[in-house]
Amino acid sequence: MTLIAAVISIGAFALTRSSPPGGPVSVSDAVVGANGSDVVAAYLVIRNPGPADELVGVSSPDADHVTMHFTRQGGGLSAMEDASTMEVPADGVLRLDPGGSHLMVEETHVSVTAGTRIRLHLDFERSGGRDVVAIAVPLAELPDRIPR
């Protein structure tokens, strides 16, 4: 191996080690509301110890569609708005929780009752993909399932 080839190989190895596939974000506490329907809201916590990132897409092998939503409050009413991305702050946390931002899992392949497992795939701009399983819990339990 020539000296130039060795330097290129070492440099390529260092690049892959300093920016590992998948990046730093982690996803936890994923739940959906058990409502017996084929449309449910999903809630979870995304922790990011690194630079700012963005959630740019969500899908599920257990549903036909998953969309991202913000909930806006105004005039005593709340309205759900589609979001094309969701910012995950640097050294911060993005919480998707009841009454706030959430994912809508639509046309699930089964009616969602307590204990149903819904697989989600989250795509991040910097950190790549993450797979998570959301457990269906009774609607009354949802607020207590997302840590503050």
Give me a quick take on this structure.
This protein is mainly beta. The protein is 14% helix and 53% strand.
Task: Describe this entry's structure for a reader.
- This protein has 148 residues and is mainly beta.
- It has one domain: Immunoglobulin-like (Sandwich).
- Strands 1, 2, 3, 4, 5, 6, 7, 8, 9 and 10 form a 10-stranded mixed β-sheet that branches.
- The radius of gyration is 19 Å and the shape is globular.
- The N terminus is likely disordered.
List key phrases describing it.
148 residues, ten-stranded mixed β-sheet, globular, 53% strand
Number of strands: 10
**Topology as a string of helices (H) and strands (E):** HEEEEEEEEEEH
Largest sheet: 10 strands, mixed
The percent range for helix content is 10-25%
Rough outline: globular
Q: What's the Cα radius of gyration? A: 19 Å
Q: Number of helix segments?
A: 2
Mean pLDDT: 86
| CATH topology name | Immunoglobulin-like
The second-level CATH architecture is Sandwich
> What share of the residues does DSSP label as strand, in percent?
over 45%
Number of domains: 1
Helix/strand/pairing class, anyone? mainly beta
CATH H-level superfamily: PCu(A)C copper chaperone
Task: Give the class-level CATH name.
Answer: Mainly Beta
How far the N terminus sits from the C terminus, by CA atoms, comes to 55 Å
Unreliable runs: 3-20
List the helices and strands and how they pair.
Layout lengths: L2 H16 L7 E9 L4 E10 L4 E7 L3 E12 L2 E7 L2 E3 L3 E5 L5 E7 L8 E8 L3 E11 L3 H4 L3
Parallel strand pairs: 1-10
Antiparallel strand pairs: 1-2, 2-7, 2-8, 3-6, 3-9, 4-5, 4-8, 9-10
